[in-house]
Amino acid sequence: MKKLSKALLCVASSVVLLAACGKQESKEAQTGAPVYVVGAEATFAPFEYQNAQNQIVGFDVDLINAVADKAGFKVKFVNTPFEGIFNFLAQGDRDLLVSAITITDERKQTVDFSDPYYESTQLIVVPKGSTVTKFRDLEKLTVGVQSATTGDEQVQKLLGKSNPKIKRLESATLALKELEGGGVDAVVLDTGPVKNYVKNNPTLGFHFISDPDFPKEYYGIAVKKGNTALLAKVNQGLAAIKADGTYDKIFKKYFSEDAK
Predict the structure, then answer these.
(1) Distance in angstroms (rounded) separating the CA atoms of residues 38 and 59
(2) Percentages of the chain per state (helix, strand, coil), in multiples of 5
(3) CA distances from 82 to 4, 62, 79 (A)
(4) Confidence of residue 260 (pLDDT cuts 50, 70, 90)
(5) Structure pTM?
(6) What are phi and psi of 234, to 5 degrees?
């Protein structure tokens, strides 16, 4: 009977120990930092692009990593084409989008945006010898844009939505490559990738033109419409990195000018 009692005692102790471990593991699972899937189109340097190891890197990547660190969550990046990127968010395949996304009233109808984190505008890129000096000069030319972007929208206002002289490409890089090959007379794209491309390809002889017809644009981090909890975390982290100087350090890493 004593041997049996000891055995029963060992079993009982084991059960208690296992139960305690289970509770500890459960507690750890509950308190572990959540991991959110971030959609980013990795062809938009210097905001997001792939390095030699095929890792997604760039200004937006460093930014959201810093935001996540401050707000207590983790992120996993997935390369996502910009055309259709909002569908991935709506379907729940992505939790966040950080891809140099301009905040617009139209987009606000389907997604919620964080506070703005970057000021931009559109620029016109032309080859050496071009006579283009302003946006209106593009009226009779073939113009390359990245499909579904605000650059695409601006050119539509000038040339008309269905004008065949608007050549829509899948990425900013492809639009600029089209200009290299002579397939278009000019390209209209966001400030960041234009300046980055011209700077890193000096032998091409491209130059860019600003125009007051282009309005200021502000980038935001997008979450699914109605996801107020995640949006609050993002804004909390964004405010924290702006307050402690982290944002400025990230900005200076990628851009020569000071943050606005």
Answers:
(1) 14
(2) 45, 20, 35
(3) 68, 19, 9
(4) low
(5) 0.85
(6) -60, -45
